[in-house]
Amino acid sequence: MLQTVVKKNSYQDSINLMLLTNKINSLDGVTKSQIMMGTDANKDIFKNAGLLTPEAEAANPSDMVVVVDSEDPSVLDAVLTKTEEFLSDLSVKKDEPDLKEVTNWDDALKALPDANLALFSTPGEYTAPEIEKALDRGLNVFSFSDNISLDDEVRLKRKAHEKGLMLMGPDCGTGVISSIPIAFTNVSKPGNIGIVGASGTGIQEVAAIIDRLGGGLIHAIGTGGRDLSAEVGAITVKDAIVGLENHEPTDVICVISKPPAPEVRDEVVDLLEKCTKPVVAIFLGEKPEHHLGKVYLAHTLEETARIAVDLANGDPVKKNYLEPLDFTCDKPLPENKTVIGLYSGGTLANEAGMLVSEALDLGGVVKEDGYILHAKGYDVIDLGDDIYTQGKPHPMIDPEVRINYIRKYAAMESTGVILFDCMLGYGCHPDMAGALAPVIKEQLEKAKSEGRELYFVGSVTGTENDPQDYQKSFEELREAGAIMETSNARAIRLALELKGIHFTEKDRDVVPYEIKDPSPLPKPSAQVTELLDTTPRIINVGVKSFNESLRTYGAETVQFNWKPLAGGNKRMIHLLDELDKRRDEIDAANARMVERFKNSQPFLVDVVPAKTVIPELNREKKTLLHSGPPITWEHMMGPMRGSCIGAALFEGWAKTEDEALKLLESGEVEFIPCHHVHAVGPMGGITSANMAVLVVRNMVDDTVAYCTMNEGIGKVLRFGAYSQEVVDRLHWMADELGPVLSKALKLKEGGINLSALIARAITQGDEFHQRNMAASLNFLKEVAPLIVKTDVPEDAKQRVIQFLADTDQFFLNVMMATGKSIVDYARKDEESCVVTTMTRNGYEFGVRIGACGDEWFTAPVNTPRGLYFAGFSEEDGCPDNGDSSITETVGVGGMAMVAAPGVTRFVGAGGFEDALNISNEMERICVTHNPNWTIPTWDFKGTCLGIDIRKVVATGITPLINTGIAHKNAGVGQVGAGTVRAPLACFEKALEAYCAKLGIE
Predict the structure, then answer these.
(1) Fewer Cβ within 10 Å of end Cβ, the chain: N or C?
(2) CB of 277 closer than 8 Å to CB of 253
(3) pLDDT for residue 909 is more than 70
């Protein structure tokens, strides 16, 4: 029985999830399981394992998917408990107090402005665009990530070269820059040898032997295994050689390559011949008969290291480096016994396949299904090949796959010798020797009991300074019964001795070489020179544990906690990547837009009948304004319909509810969004001709905005109530409240400065959507003396002042009109991708952005979550309504939750810590802060400003809106308060349109 749990937006590193899967598979009752992110590639792995459930199929790339096959349904609880324990423990282990952690490139470069290298260990299907971003930001790149297409590798390496940068990788497992070990790397003594290697474990083997011979490294530049292919053309190898030739502390250049394309190999040799420094090179698969000019050619990795050390010490290069084994075999294994190689290191497997094939004339190495050699019963397998690591950790990290293969081959009658490697260093298993030794001992004892002759022959690739302890590992494997040698080449030779084959090497002399390309050796770029001359300053993108070796040996790092952009949506990722190439121009447009926000000067100047300032309401055609994007009567929810009924009764279009419904259903009434006529309306937003509206003028260019006044709490029109009490209040507001305020405002030259009032109130605990108490009292403080001065009757003054004093939320509507006056001024600059409108109508949520003017981008609206009044529950709530999200559009409301910690519990958001987290989260999707409205509880940072659709789509973080909750049925009114998220689809649609406007497909 398959059971699935999908943890939404819970990105975890693939290596950790592989290790977790192994632990889960060891639990009692688990037949098999798989825990991976919900990427397309991982879904194929689920499918191949018979674990792809509908829930897993539907998961997003940013979701962690747990699939368990068990006969016992209760096992899932144990799996989830173990999963939480593992991830929590991982978090604690990785806690580094002084390590800066970021989630995007901008913050990474702010944290480490002089960074010169980006280290990638992210899923390959998403890595190429991220590498391009690093290159565009002037960073050299080290890509541990694999599964990057050859086309992308060629394109990115050419781009790096053109920019004077170096791209090491992809699939670059190891490296040393200025004696700092990177990724899966051994700790070598500093020295004067510089390695350029198109092979990770090849570098490790050569570096480890150099270390044991007393030599040392200054650099080991990994290039990725395909760099010497015909397609790539050794771009990185050539740049690295030129860099080392011009790097003063490097005295010897050592080049290591998997089998290269012949024409590329010749180009590299030609380049090496131009170097003034001594050079040793190995092209695996070749058996050199002589040295060429200045280039000493080696046959094995051990010989490469020995030549390099002699050159580094100024000693002459010997004609032959083959040293005798301290081993003799008096009784070779019979002909039917074969040699098997089970390797975690791909290059070491290649070396074994090459030497065994040469000795036994087996036709050379192959590269199919993980086999390096597969002939006449002789198998050499690279267990790090993709075929063995899909959904599983690399065998350098986890011994499980190799242990299984050891048991499989050790049980075969034909197996005489099992060759193996044991890789040490950062990134590798903490005690690989300890994991392999018991299995080796077990299989040797089993073979002996069955009367079979079986040998294990191995080597340890590592140094005394590696965290696992080279000598301890070597001795532990020997004590288990393995015959241990000091290099892979010597182990292979010993295995051949057991077969009665004595390995030999012919002496090699130097033959002249004529340089084919007479052009001078190029000069390295300033960036490559700087990289090689200094201690690297690294942005570590991905696996956090890579910081350990970097920081231990003196590198400065910042941790980029990467996860797929846009939740892994590849269409959105493509658009974001294309926009990133134009980020300077887009950022400039956004900066202009937010300056218009900042420079706005909203003043409350009047209160008037709506029809006197909104022409669409001053005509024969019956017309109602509503909140949100355009909507028809058929799609209106209960509260908005209730508000329409109330407006019809208020205007005298109908005398009863039934008459009003008949009128509204007949099509005689035209519905227009408030936003189309420079207005906004709370909740249902229904505004009719004779209702009183606030008039806010933005003094920068006289942009004007309108909003009805706040009715107070209880049964009110905005929440869909339409009783006689509601209608009567509307008449009083139109006939007395509005005119009194109008007269009062006319006594204040220029009106009331709303930005200044907001600046005061935000320091007093308001966020201006759910809490307006301070602002409403500040407004009363401003307007009450003016009301007193008017010539209206004293009882009218008393009623108006009392209403304002009783209505804590009165300022909400003023804030709404303020926000509208700001965005309508700001959006006259039609080039940015900043949000200029967010609104909802109970059916759809609508967004507009600067560059797309009046165009709406809509998606189904969400239902708020929060606290309900007594007697009501979530089942009673209506999907969200209202233009009041204009407050969040200009950076207050839910965007400024930290300003009003007192309201967080009321809207169901928790306590102060939650409020702080929300504002910090909202900060991530905005362009900047508004210095006009600073928040004391946020270290006096300004409110968030300028919601950037790129950031919303990239992070999946959508604006949080504080809101009231209306009952889903007309006439009931408000039943609670809470928060609601804007739907991501609106911003994705806006991004598509924005890109289309820029000509991006």
Answers:
(1) C
(2) yes
(3) no
